[in-house]
Amino acid sequence: xxxxxxNIENFCMIPGTSGDESAVREAxxxxxxxxxxxxxxxxxxxxxxxxxxxxxxxxxxxxxxxHMDEVGFIVTRIDEHGFLRFGCVGHIDxxxxxxxxxxxxxxxxxxxxxxxxxxKIPKERRGEPAEIADLFIDIGADDKPSAEALAxxxxxxxxDTDFLRLGGGKAVCSRALDDRAGCALLVELLKGDxxxxxxxxxxxxxxxxxxxxxxxxxxxxxxxxxxxxxTSAGDGAGVPEENYVCAQGKGPVVSFIDEGTxxxxxxxxxxTSLAKENGIPFQSxxxxxxGNDSAAISKSRMGVRPAAVSLPARYIHSPVSTVRAEDLExxxxxxxxxxxxxxxx
Amino acid sequence: xxTMELLRALCEPEGNSGAExxxxxxAAGLLSPYGTISVGPLGSVICxxxxxxxxxxxxxxxxxxxxxxxxxxxxxxxxxxxxxxxGIDRRSVSGSAVRVMTKSGPLSGVIGAVPPHLQKDxxxxxxxxxxxxxxxxxxxxxxxxxxxxxxxxxxxxxxSSIGEGYVSSPALDDRAGCACILKALxxxxxxxxxxxxxxxxxxxxxxxxxxxxxxxxxxRPTEAIEIDVSFGATPDTKPGETGEMKKGPMVGLSPMLxxxxxxxxxxxxxxxxxxxxxxxxxxxxxxNADEISRTGSGVRCGMLSVPQQYMHTVxxxxxxxxxxxxxxxxxxxxxxxxxx
Lengths: 345, 340
Description:
- The structure holds two protein chains of two kinds.
- Chain A is an alpha/beta fold.
- Chain A is built from eight helices and 18 strands.
- In chain B, helix 6 (about 260-270) packs across helix 8.
- Chains A and B meet through strand 7 and strand 10 of A and strand 7 of B.
């Protein structure tokens, strides 16, 4: 069984773009199947649903949710030169695509995302970001038949990046921290002793707004949902503070609104009060940006009261997203409190 | 040494322009079996294989430096602000892992990117050189202690083989050229040479040169061949605009180059059945050939380029076969005593 940090690394290293999460699901299942009080099953939407038994039955049924999928690429065709043409799965800015290494398909075939040399583009156009349609994955094949022997349309690709520790362990850096870090947090939550029972859903297809969250919300029948996301911390270099939305090192991010969901105001109050009572640093998401599985879950059946507790992550949807160790720890502390307190509501 | 292993040995050490020590040291070690090594004041490694003979002395040059970034300051939030050191590809630098080469050792960091969720509707643009910063996950105080202005920053990549006979590394420009020279020297070892021969691995090519011209001044060759990488074809390039991969060295033809040297290279490639292709330039070559030709009272220069895809990114890619055919042509040229 992996430790918290080992799980983050292991989960991040598994390719799993939206709709292709099976390897991630298996890795998570392996981690939780023998945990006390955990009964898990995979559903038709590709989610992994875990019922955690508590010492007492909950008054309110609480669903904790993290998505297993990541943004990446999908091969659309193989061109006459043997290059793989591709599209993006989820939102990816072309400025983090050119010149990156990728792993293609189930066999993790190494490839490079190539482009025409910058020197061959007229000077006045070098500031323009590349168009995804002009880019291609080079797998070192010399022609179309050789490429066809190795890859096919529909194959997925992800950035091939190393899992790094930055600042002497103050932060970790990888692709897919959104939301494998959330998955690892919920695995930690499942390891603990639960005063009340709760449900955890590791969902599929979040990055493409697919069937994962609606199915999980329907089948878990929760009263309350807590989505655990890696959310965009805008506190990069040179960004004015008013544009941060949230920042690293300030603890879990509690949302009251984003582009997909207006969160339950009473739950927001409860969560922030619990954080204060327990001396856990937290911050609010100061901006109406992004969205997560809450939008779909809150509309399940007769409605679910939504909450979101997120990790402030820099550079998400890039090969080098980062999260801070202290934020991971404080988010886990808050989730542990919530798993004990929210079922009482 | 096997071409792949030779390239790996050359590419693994870092060598940003003006800070080539690690790469130059490895390269000097690889050159040492073939001649007498000296190092010029600007750091270029000079290996005299044979002194001038019959009034002829051929110089083979490839540059040892690679592009990167340089720290200009540590800002009030602990980000290392950096500027390009060499012509980095603005399209590819966001979302990159880097290593800051500090006095106390390398420090991992990243060049971030604003995620789509936080982008406003402003017109999207590739990052400007003045906006580049490295996130070290350190406070201003901690970063200030470790990092200082002038520290070099290397864009992380991986040396790897890929597909059918290709290799990739961020340093192939121009360690690929260094490999061609080393392979040629290996082929010439123990042979009686009809001319003098010196190999130079020059510094600072990516930042305006200096390493090659000064080394050439010291060597005083009668002629020189520059070995660099040039643009390999990608699907969107026009015929004639770039070289084809695996079709051999691109023989440069340009008003800056010496017709006699170029013609001799073509003649020998034909004679020996070595694949080659043309690289036609209207003026300056954009390589060390330009400054070597202007050295002293002038040096007759030719140029061979290894076709390389994805220039100035961490996935620079060349074909092993092109390194080998370039080396074969260089060896043939020296054995035949150079230009007529």
